Amino acid sequence: MKSEQKKKTGTARLLQLAATKKPLVIGSLILSALASIVSFVPYIAIYLIVGEILGALPDMANLNSTLTIQYGWLAFGGVVGNILLYWGALVCSHLAAFGTLYELKVNFATHLAKVPLGFHVMVGSGKLRKITDENIEKVEGFIAHQLPDLVGAFVAPVVMVIILVAVDWRFGLAALLGVLLAFFMQFSIYGNEGSKAMMAKYQKSIEEMNNASVEYIRGISVVKAFKQTVYSFRRLHDTIKAYTAMVIPYTLSWENSFSGFTTLVNNIYLFILPVAIWVGMKTTDYASFASTVIFYLIFVQSIATILMRIMYVNGNAMRIIGGVEAMDQVLAEPELIQPAQPQAAGSHDVSFREVTFSYDKAKETEALSGVSFRAKRGEITAIVGPSGGGKSTIAHLIPRFFDVTAGEIAIGGVDIRQMDTHYLMDQVSFVFQDVFLFKQSVMDNIRMGNQNANDEQVIEAAKAAQCHDFIMKLPKGYQTVIGTRGVHLSGGEKQRIAIARAIVKDAPIVVLDEATAFADPENEHLIQKAFEKLMRNKTVVMIAHRLSTVRGANNIIVVEGGRVTEQGTHDELIQKGGKYHTMWQTYTETASWSMANKKEVRTHA
Ligand SMILES: Nc1ncnc2c1ncn2[C@@H]1O[C@H](COP(=O)(O)OP(=O)(O)OP(=O)(O)O)[C@@H](O)[C@H]1O
Ligand SMILES: [Mg+2]
Questions:
Q1: Do 311 and 363 belong to one domain?
Q2: Ligand 1 contact, 217 CB (< 6 A)
Q3: What is the spatial distance between Cα 500 and Cα 12, in angstroms, rounded to a whole number?
Q4: Using one digit for the tens of pLDDT, what is the confidence trace for 307-316?
Q5: 440-443: which pairs have CB atoms within 8 A and are 24 or more residues apart?
Q6: Which of 299, 331, 363 is the last residue of a domain?
Q7: Helix, coil or strand: residue 260
Q8: Which run of H or of E encompasses 511?
Q9: In ligand 1, which atom is closest to the CA atom of 389?
Q10: CA 383 to CA 401: how far, in whole Å?
Q11: Which ligand 1 atom minimizes the distance to the CA of 433?
Q12: At 488, is the pLDDT very low, low, confident or very high (cuts 50, 70, 90)?
């Protein structure tokens, strides 16, 4: 079922989505088709009435008034019937649409919960939100409105042609000739394929323009601070120009054909009149001739409406298809493979064995190649190295944000891919640099680490993480809702909340990526104290730029260009005189330099 689902694209895929609620959709389509047929009844009724009246002339006393009035009711019934049937069609289609929408969203959310966490890190919540809120929402519009209208739009021309030819084929053929000419004008320039390609270009161009303007507005503070107004405006300017350069010639290319189409379609009686003159000259039955001419002159007006509707239905479908494609792309993202027989970790040592990993499987570039090391319980394993070396990648692989390309990561000798994801998550706490806090109370935000923790445990953790004092200064203490007016936490404060979270979680393995990044010297001391509690008797994998924080680590691993180049204790590595030694020298120099600088500023002040 699933693999089949992924193959369908375009309209076929839309119809497949609509089929989720098949009976309702079919009901809606039938009702809509009937509504479309019934909408022609008033024309027929008027034709019959005119025939009756003209047949009775010159003496109106001959008029069969009962029959005429019945025809009048028939016209009325046609109008009411059309409204009721269309209403019924919309009720069915809306029920189907909301049902489908619900299933799609649940499906999408379930899938998101099963893809590797790294997917979320890479795609970003903004894009996923756009897909659920906007793109999937469009499917609702398609099933609720476009689908019934689509059927109407295709049934109506068929009935129209039948009626045109059935009443009087000579008039009918003349009218059809007009319609054919109109269509010929419209589609002579671009074939169906050409217009499809153009539509894709058009969509892409709009998207680029939207992205550029969002970026421009988001970055406006940076732009102003650096007085970059003109240059940063350039990208937005360029996309608008590109859009204009594409759309204006495209629009102009339709100038003649579309005007021709509209003009013809609205003036079909120009084709009818010559036929009328020709037939009129030969006829002897003026009454029926006149009623036929009157019928065609009235009926022909509806041709424009019917044909225009076909054009619009088409344009809308293309926009929705783009949205569905974005959804399908996410759905095609492979889910994290769950082991058939989940195993538990033997101990809590973490070991990397010849781990190779690349973010983009299609490309050759590897973020990690042949990385091996062992982080033991009760020890601190520090990872250091130049920016872009692969430190964060190592951190993300431990809780299985991504699966390794080759090699193996094991906890207590058991491959993490052999563990149930929930179980693995219970084993690992992580504090990453960008801390996300929910719009909930501080208490609940810390409890996120462990739903079973009671208030006392949360407060104890907060104290250990050195956040108790600043929390007590918030307007409502632990009950303060983060993100409300006037409540703003600094980067370092957020980070300490994240540490408190990790403390209540009390998982045996702790992964810290740049967790002291925000710390100033005073703050760093507090955070170090917070760590003491967190790290006691745990397997700690710690990444830090500030080498003073890793100096006391049991094992320091130097990662450069995705490879482990050195490992050992601080003293061993200093003795070795390799990369770590150089890094340490640079670090102590800059540290003393900045201290000296500070003193200087002070004496000047
Ligand atoms: N989401 C991603 N998609 C593609 N490539 C990535 C992604 N994240 C990181 N990389 C690449 O992987 C390599 C290692 O990045 P990583 O973030 O692990 O470095 P790092 O050592 O943590 O650097 P820093 O000290 O700056 O945080 C880099 O070349 C980077 O460009
Ligand atoms: Mg990093």
A1: no
A2: no
A3: 51
A4: 877 777 666 6
A5: 440/481, 440/482, 441/476, 441/478, 441/479, 441/480, 441/481, 441/482, 442/471, 442/474, 442/477, 442/478, 442/479, 442/480, 442/482, 442/497, 443/478, 443/479
A6: 331
A7: helix
A8: strand 509-513
A9: 21
A10: 18
A11: 27
A12: confident
Answer whether residue 336 is part of any domain.
no
Rounded Cα distance, 464 and 125, in Å: 32
Which atom, in ligand 1's list, is nearest to the CA of 395?
A: 18
Q: Is the pLDDT of residue 262 over 90?
A: no
**Number of domains observed in the structure of the chain:** 2
Give domain status of residue 151, yes or no: yes
Structure tokens at 447: 């409890």
Distance 368 CA to ligand 2 centre (A): 13
* Å from CA of 220 to ligand 2 middle: 26
Which protein residue has the closest C-alpha to ligand 1 atom 1? 122
The three-state DSSP-derived secondary structure of 429-445 is EEECCCCCCCCCEHHHH
Instruction: Note the pLDDT tens digit of each residue in 194-216.
Output: 666 777 788 788 878 888 888 78
The amino acid present at 157, given as its one-letter code, is P
Residue 399 and residue 284 share a domain: no
Helix 41-56 and helix 65-114: axis angle, to 10°? Answer: 170
pLDDT at 1 (0 to 100): 40
Tokens matching residue 552: 């006391």
CATH number at residue 359: 3.40.50.300
Decide if 564 contacts 407 (C-beta within 8 A): no
Query: Are 322 and 361 in a shared domain?
Result: no
Whether 247 and 395 map to the same domain: the answer is no
Nearest CA to ligand 1 atom 26: 387
* Residue 384 structural domain: 350-604
Closest ligand to the CA of 360: 1
User: How many angstroms is it from 541 CA to the middle of ligand 2?
Assistant: 13
